[in-house]
Amino acid sequence: MASTATSRLGGLRSRGAALGGVVPPVSLLLLAGAAGLFVGSLRSSVFAQLTVQGLALGAVYGSLALALVLVYRATHVINFAQGELAMATTYVAYQLIKWGLSYWEAFFATLTIAFVLGTVLELALVRPVQHRSVIAAVIVTVGLFILLDGVVNWIWGGDFKFMPSPFGTRVYHVGNVSISRLYPGMFVVVIVSVLLVWALFRFTKLGLGMRAAALRPAESALVGVRVDWMLAVGWGLAAVLGAVAGLMAEPSQFFLEPTLMQPILVYAFAAAVLGGLESPTGAVVSGLAIGVSLNLVVQYVPAITSELQTPVAFAVLVGVLLVKPSGLFGHREVRRV
Amino acid sequence: MRARVPALVSLAAVAAVLCVLPFTLSDYNVSLAARVGIFFVAVLGLDILTGYTGQISIGHGAFMAIGGYSTAILSRDHNTNLVLTMLAAFALCFLVGLLVGLPALRLSGVYLALATFALAVSVPALPLQWSRFLGGRDGVQTSTTVGDVWLYGAAWSASAILFVLAWLVLRGRIGRAFRAVRDSEIAAVASGVELPVYKTLAFGISAAYAGVAGSLFVLATNGFAAPDEFGIALSLQILIGAAVAGLGSLWGVLAGAAFVGLLPSVSSSVPVIGSQHGQDVVFGAAVILVMLLLPGGFAGLLAQLRRLKRA
Amino acid sequence: MAVNRRKLGSLVGVLVATAVAAGGAAASQQGTPGVTKKQIVIGGTFPFTGPAALYKTIPAAEAAYYAYVNAHGGVFHRKIKDITLDDQYDPAQTLPQTKKLVQKDHVFAVVGSLGTAPILSTWTYLNKRKIPQVLVATGDAYWGECARHKCAASKTAKPWTMGWQPDYPGEAKVYAKYILKTKPHAKIGVLYQNDAYGTNYLAGLKAGLGSHKNQIVDAESYSVGDSAQVIGAHVVALRAHGADTFVIFATPAPTIQALVARTLTGWSPLTLVNNVSANRVFELAAAQNGANLNGIISTAYLASPTTQANLKGMKLAKAIIHATGNQALEQSLAQGDGNIVYGLASAWTFVDALKHAGRNLTRPGLMKALRNLNESGKDTNPFVYPGMTVKTSKKRAFPMEQLKLERWSGGAGGDWHTFGKLYSGVH
Question: Could you tell me if A4 lies within 8 Å of chain B, comparing CB atoms?
Fold first, then answer.
């Protein structure tokens, strides 16, 4: 790959300043969109239902997209296996529940296991190759994708497995809108996880160390940051976010099977790229946007049939990239010659 | 790294082996050997794009789909001679590749990779939409089918022809321009290389190769072109093949093609894991191991060996 | 010019060796491939992994039945060896796997392979070589229509390919009849898979409705692999079009998602589900996730291991599955997994045909037996719905052409209960 000196403008300044660096039209567009959703929901119960569902699933896309961004910022690798890793950790939770743990006990145990697994994978698989060839590192993640898929199929089989629903099956009635408790539940759990990770980066020394290690590895090492460990922790956190995404995706699909995260990974990639691969905010916001838009488009634009959905979504993505090659929230790379 | 052309003697030996092989192998193994030939064409194409101009594409399954469907539709509707359909696939995919290469100029590195990923995911969905012409989920069937030996001959003849074509292109001015683009776009522009022309050309050539591979792929599936065959898994397999091959070595391309062409079928013979439907476990582990041990691919290994020999 | 004797000698040796090897490979096997004095080797492709993996209890049940037959001496003292390979429901993998079965494992017949597209990608290859491709696990009408003449899906007849279960368009016509009888002014909304499987079902429904087919107010198609979100959006769309009757022509995963979505959005239409997704295990899953199942309609052609557990056939099924030692399979059967009964029933038919094909077993002989099945009276298949027959003849290419309507009752732990008359001549 071409090696060019790059400088990332404002990449890791505080969250507030980064938002201020976002091109105004994008923020205006988002505000307009949010207002539109609100008004639409008031006027039509179907619209409201689709919006709530869309936000919940969008949160899942955003969480996985955020995991992708974390990994990319830390190690400059697109982790193709992020979705399968999330799926595999969800199966771990399934197994823990079968062995007798309660749902939430298994939930937190799985997050811990995911963290460990993520760091181990970075140390064992990415570290050795990353410096020699980024393409090799990416192919390693592709191999990991295949391996994890194979292992899960081999151990648990490819058919349905059922996990207890974390939120029960109660349905709320707001006006004449029926909202299952599942969707607000998913949304809250994912957003809380994302906020906790954000707080970690923003307010703790560890987070500062991680940001520094990603932006300026050589300089950080000089001031005593253990760069290597920071990168591994980055992968660990990404795996945790992935596990949350998987655990929340499962009840939304109503059963667990090995292909659980594959459609979600596709949209997570779209969200990560749309938001700009270096922007955590971008990833989450894009995920939410994609989740809601998909739902509304299927309902209100009959010309875009089920089959055309993914192509159209990607056509839009590519269109955005052509106008803003570093994503909606990304910053242009300045190449120093 | 210049393209290393194996000595003529070794090439002749390989050609001789290839000619004799179909008569000594069982039918089943001949079809496997044909499969390696098909992947050889596809991986060679991707190698030209990624190895020589540094543009990553995870979307070559889409070009294979276009090539494959061209063959199927031409055969189904017009009874076209199969070899002619492959030429048509080559031409059509060349044009499509140029078209894709144009917007690709705006994107680089990871973003280009993800845009081509979008292509890989989207193109196989198109037959589902225009199902009357493109057969929908149930696919398109050619009017004639071919046997394993014909396929073997076609695949390896195409490989030979396309390899020679690649060698001619790469050793000349175009090849130097490609390599200049890969090593430093800025320097290339500074030296007067018209970036857009060469980058787009590389996409076109690469896509054309994938198109021919796609035609052969459909013929290998008994003339049956269906969306499920061209999913993202196929694009990833070609990418793996190119990575295992490494850059700039013909032998590397052969190794890469053999890796992705044979390993999945062979995996099921692995004891315990393989027999219990764990083929993917073996394949995935193999991919990881190969990339960890040989990050420069097979070509990198050969280069190292050559250096050792000289030392 | 002096010829180097040694070089010439080795060259001749290589040529001779090559010729011998080629000759050996070309020499056809004596007798029928896959059949020896002690063994019959058969094979099939199934989705053990991938999007259709929940059908994998079918080959497991078939293997269990063959094990049972082998334990009782086999057929004419030949034991049945069944080689099943995974094709992940991907037609590009089905062909190489099928070639493996034919060219490497030399199977006598390809039995029970699953999936419409996988069969379509291999039937030309197998028919050309006159290899039986029988009792395929899909209900598409092609396997009957194309048996003797060319048809929409094939320019030439495919006499070596044969189905087993009642075909999909026929099943859809039964639903049409039911709707017209019980809810003549129904506004029908259909969810269907966008491939031959789904479109054939929809066409059958329309044919069954006849002049009433404009009562279908909306038909939403989805793709295999669509997420629950997309399926849910389709359900909402159907309701928004004013449908008060919901027909689901979908494989199990989207069916479960559609059933749940319908309840979660507060919709309770008359609901009809196609029988491949009416496996009790799947319905229980939907209920677990909040679907209200009472009153949904489907059809049956197999005996029920739960509501008909006292039938001789169901007791036999329990014993056969118990003998495998596979606890997960036993549990699944106890919960009412109809796919296990399907596998047992289909395998029973195959063994029945083997017996009628005689001691001198050939491929044409097998096809003749399969085209002249008569599993009725004393020779009834113990696993199909009591009273149903499995028959084929010159006029009838589909072994099973009977269905019975069933309705779910009992809520989240309930079950299907058949009602009404026996529909015959379904196709």
Answer: yes
Alpha carbons C134 and C110: distance in angstroms, whole number: 6
Q: What is the pTM of this model?
A: 0.83
- Tell me the torsion sign for CA atoms C127, C132, C137, C142: positive
- pLDDT bin (cut points 50, 70, 90) of residue B20 is confident
Domain spans in chain B, listed from the N-terminal domain onward: 25-232
The tally of domains found in chain A comes to 1
- Which chains have 3 or more CB–CB distances shorter than 8 Å to chain B? A, C
Same domain, C289 and C412: yes
Instruction: Show the domain range for C86.
Output: 34-166+302-396
Residue of chain C with shortest Cα separation from A296: C233
C71 and C158 fall within a common domain: yes
Question: Quick check: A255 and C260 CB within 8 A?
Answer: no
Q: Sign of the CA dihedral B237, B243, B248, B252?
A: negative
For testing contact with chain A, the best of B292, B293, B294, B301 (most A CBs within 10 A): B292
- Looking at residue B131, its pLDDT comes to 74
- In chain C, the percentage of residues whose pLDDT exceeds 70 is 93
pLDDT digits (tens, 9 = 90+) for C214-269: 999 999 988 877 878 788 888 988 998 999 999 999 988 899 999 998 988 888 99
Is B184–A2 a contact, with Cβ atoms under 8 angstroms apart?
A: yes
A:C CB pairs within 8 Å: 105
* B131-146 burial code (b ≥16 CB/10 A, e <16): beebbbbbbbbbeebb
Provide the pLDDT for residue A331. 65
Q: Any chain A CB within 8 A of the CB of B8?
A: no
Q: Give per-residue pLDDT as tens, C236-250.
A: 889 989 999 999 999
Q: C21–B23: do the CB atoms touch at under 8 Å? A: yes
B110: phi > 0 → left, psi -120 to 50 → alpha, else beta; which? Answer: alpha
